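User: Structure please.
Assistant: Input sequence and predicted structure:
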Amino acid sequence: MTSIREPSRLGVVFAVAVEADAFERLATGRVETRATGVVIHEGLVRGTRVAWCVGGVGAAAAARAAGLLVSGHRPGLLVSAGFAGGLDPALARGAVVRPAAVVAEEGGPSLPLEVVGAPAASSPVTIISVAAIVGTAAAKRDLAARSGAGLVDMETHAVATVAAAAGLPCAGVRVISDAADDDLPREVAALARPQSPLRRLGTALGAVGRRPGAARDLWRLYEHAVIDGRTLAAALAETCAAVAR
């Protein structure tokens, strides 16, 4: 992979394409750099040079993507961006959260996160990164009680770890895709596992064959994801504008 001529001010790691789609449409002067298994995009958003990629679901994929951004594009700030599950009942579905710290489910120290572009009145929130989707309201209540975190994802801790090793600040920008009291369709966990697009299609068709109602549930989830992607793009644009000032 060849490096760009000047460093990016932001490097953004998404897990899945629907999280990145609306943000990509905001960028001008877009170029692509192809690495093994990952396409890194670069462009200008609200006056800020940004490099971003869809790295895949989970800690290993996020760490790899973050490492590629650091080594090839030299960002001044790494951002873990995407959707998250709510653990705090006060966080409504569709809300934007910029957590101030991240912890890992397996333990270890909390890592600080920069809060960039958030309103001054925002209260500090911790995000916890886990190895598997937390799909039921009961499991969310248990995780909230054990961790004290306000929301949950699978990638932010890995991105923050890469940033810390490189001596870079890290930020999280997350949209609540399912609130604390929401149960996700049970098929979501299987669809989120690392797999090729063709295999994922087979997984989805198999799920519908076993439970016809899954088609309706998964379509509704996709519709919500498209809306949440637009909300995420607007929040990231605010972050870009704040960095440009």
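The chain has one domain: 10-244.
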